[in-house]
Design a protein that fits this description.
The chain is of the alpha/beta class and about 290 residues long. Helices cover about 45% and strands about 15% of the residues.
Length: about 290
């Protein structure tokens, strides 16, 4: 079994820690550049997300950042280097970003994005890949790529999934900046809090998630991903029936049902649960306010 103890903070610009409950926090730590990212940071995030996905002892992941901005998107220096790349080099570069986003989006653990400030370009993609987005009243968003003559290509599947095609058609083309209230209306942000209350809101959401069966939470996330936009036909009906039957007879399902009828807390609320044993089967400046890359 791969454990979180095998994962170390990968760099000064990307921090990683896990608490005793199995809550992992990945923190972008480049506040002087408004947490803009480049190819090296993308590589680090990609490796980190792949390792977190393997950890049965990580139950929740929070994506956060230091400083005033959540992330300004692509770093200026990286953008300058990409401008001189060949098509093949640009394709390889884009694929690296696309794989990082994919690994974040399909992380088996529930994910929370804590957005305290501005999120531009690719940072909107990061938020769109998370299950739950909690933002401060100071948060703002911008799909700024067309201002540079570019398009938000690699983040587009996740952004369209988050805010819908109609809103994407507008904001992909206009590069308008919008704020937390509009982001909530569009479905990108789940809840908005005063900046001083954002940490406690994230803590409350973590507690909400940890109150539920850890295996069930993972399977519920996968269920939503698998059944979205599917035809409700006999194949889907059969598959979903099989899933509920399997989890009912699992160790966690049996414990949850038994605890409910015995009017007691289930075991996972008393202590962190290891899935291997519980399972039966700040505003960006114009110099860094760039696109996704």
């Amino acid at each position: 079994m791969f454990s979180h103890s095998n994962i170390k903070s990968p760099s000064e610009q990307v921090l990683f820690d896990v608490d005793s409950r199995g809550v992992a926090t990945v923190t972008l730590n480049n506040p002087d550049k408004h947490n803009a990212f480049d190819d090296s940071i993308i590589y680090v995030l990609n490796q980190l997300f792949k390792e977190i996905a393997l950890c049965d002892d990580i139950n929740v992941m929070v994506l956060a950042s230091t400083g005033k901005s959540f992330s300004a998107g692509a770093d200026l220096g990286w953008m300058q280097r990409m401008a001189s790349y060949s098509y093949e080099e640009n394709l390889s570069d884009a694929n690296a970003l696309a794989q990082m986003l994919k690994n974040l989006n399909f992380l088996p653990q529930p994910t929370i994005a804590k957005v305290q400030g501005a999120a531009f370009g690719g940072a909107v993609g990061l938020a769109s890949c998370c299950d739950i987005v909690l933002a401060s009243e100071k948060a703002s968003f911008c799909l700024s790529e067309v201002k540079l003559g570019l398009i938000p290509a690699t983040i587009s599947p996740y952004v369209v999934n988050a805010i819908g095609q109609k809103a994407s058609r507008r904001y992909f083309q206009t590069a308008e900046r919008f704020f937390a209230d509009k982001a909530q209306q569009l479905g990108l942000v789940d809840e908005i809090y005063p900046l001083t209350e954002l940490d406690s809101a994230v803590a409350k959401m973590i507690n909400t998630l940890l109150a539920n069966g850890p295996l069930a939470v993972r399977q519920a996330k996968q269920l939503a991903l698998d059944v979205a936009y599917q035809d409700i036909d006999e194949t889907l009906i059969k598959e979903t029936s099989e899933r509920i039957a399997a989890i009912r007879v699992s160790a966690e399902g049996q414990e949850g049902l038994t605890a409910f009828f015995e009017k007691r807390q289930p075991a996972w609320q008393a202590a962190p649960i290891n899935l291997a044993t519980s399972s039966s089967s700040a505003e960006p400046t114009t110099s860094t306010n760039k696109g996704e890359g």
